[in-house]
Amino acid sequence: MKVLMLNYEYPPLGGGGAAVCRDMSELMIKDGDKVSVVTMAFKGLARKENYNGVEIHRVACWRSKKRVCHPWEQLTYCISAFHYIIKKMDIKQYDIVHCHFIIPTGLLALWLRKKYGIKFLVTAHGSDVLGHNNARFKYLYGIVKPMWKSILKNATMVTAPSYYLANKICKAYSNVDCQVVPNGIFNNLFGVGSRKKSIIVAARLQESKGIQDLIEACSKIDMSEWEVNILGEGPYRDELEILINKYNLQEIIYLRGYISGEEYVRYLSEASIYFTGSWFEAMPVSVLEAMASQNLIIASNIEPHRELLPEDCIYCSEEELIEKLKMNMKRTEFVKQYDIEKYEWNNIIQKYKQIYKQLV
């Protein structure tokens, strides 16, 4: 099968949606399929290359940062990619076009459908769904709503990684049938290491990640012999540093910056407790990774967390967070097993391939 993947960001650019696209593409190559990806160019990256079997086309556009892409930058990708595909690619050779993110990439898929009559599958990832991230995009959602609905109307099929996100889509546009296909992980990459008295957070440093709640909680309990490692970068770093200094927790709570690869896996394997205090998520891959690492997970009370985790992992108030921290820190064994096998990438990719066969 020949698949054309459309995604405005692809590693090393972007976040979770980019990584999902990469993992899918490389797994399909291993399965004997052909995958081409059309994505954004960025300084230092080859305009065209074959990486792990995936044919990657990077089109000229505006993008100033690796991890963050502004809406006007995303629009330049759609315009540039449309002209690139028309001039330099034979779109008719592909069996299926798989578009990641309703907005902005769905706009590109819509233009291609209108020009060539092609079918396309669109996968939602989070902030591309109306109402998911009102704190940042409330006004933008109002502007793009007609276009957003048009993309869904013209899509042959729509998928989302969680029931929460699928329900959000259907609430905003009731005429769509959205299938749930979870994000996947490679379970064999994660495991239980030599546990330390360590609490780990892996998230972009934004207020909505709730990391400040953990810092507040740590200021109210005995943290002797324990440390907190916060992995990630983001615009809320200064505020977190101020809070850490306010409570004199500089020798307990460490902002480690962005960490990936083997070092990230090591942090997870050695951590006893994993914390996520997010106000909203689509389908948090980092939680799946903590599950595969068998960390003791403490998670905020949001639907995507409840889809993944048992009740005893969820906290609903600051008091519950403090109690769960105290309880887990007193344990003699820092290991918990979860139902993780169904999120193994090799199982998830087969679900997508079944969808592809239906569409073809």
TrEMBL record:
Residues 194-309 form the Glycosyl transferase family domain. It holds the Pfam family Glyco_transf_4. InterPro entries: Glyco_trans_1, Glyco_trans_4-like_N, Glycosyltransferase_grp1. GO terms for molecular function: glycosyltransferase activity. Residues 15-185 form the Glycosyltransferase subfamily 4-like N-terminal domain. SUPFAM superfamilies: UDP-Glycosyltransferase/glycogen phosphorylase. This is Glycosyltransferase family 1 protein.
